[in-house]
Amino acid sequence: MPNEATILLVDDEPHVTDALKRTFRSQPYDFLTATSAAAAQKLLESHHVDVVVSDEQMPGMSGSEFLSLVRKRYPHTIRMILSGHASLTAAVRAINEGEVYRFFLKPCNPVDLIVTVQQALQHKRLEEQSRRLLREYRRQAALLDRVKEGNSELLHLDTDEQGALVIDESDGEGAVSELLAEIEQAMKGR
Fold this sequence. Notes:
The protein is α/β, with parallel strands linked by helices and 190 residues long. The chain folds into 2 domains: 125 residues, 3-Layer(aba) Sandwich (Rossmann fold); 39 residues, no CATH class. 51% of the residues lie in helices and 18% in strands. The protein has 6 helices and 7 strands, in the order βαβαβαβαβαββα. The strands form 2 sheets. The protein has a 5-stranded parallel beta sheet, sandwiched between helices. It has a two-stranded antiparallel sheet with strand order 6-7. α5 crosses α6. It is elongated.
């Protein structure tokens, strides 16, 4: 069975990424690791990543700068920071520039990290479902508009408070059954 998510761990100290992988060993995730922001960027170019957990203080590029790039290039990837230093400036920068999901201080509680990643993945799934439903709604609204245009005998086409279709057929006998037949035919052809 394939794992449910891919997590990229970025820290210039390999023992930290190894410890993080051990923290998640019972979770159904695939892991990628990088020891620099540049190496992590290359991994992101060639792999789908659901969550990035990055150290803040790394040589070359800080974690918040790196996550800011991730936000711009991969906006649906969840971003988190791990920092060994409780700098308010770093936290504010990470939140503002990288729009991080969470900011953890090292050493962080492993259970908190696991639960936060699970919540982040659930949040991501809900956002994906919302985008999918919005696309479906727009597709169906366009189909309804096309059907409505082809049935000029319908004087009124509206929805009630619950979203149910309200049809006033005071000027066209049989228009509702024709409309339903056309919608059914259109739905079969999708």
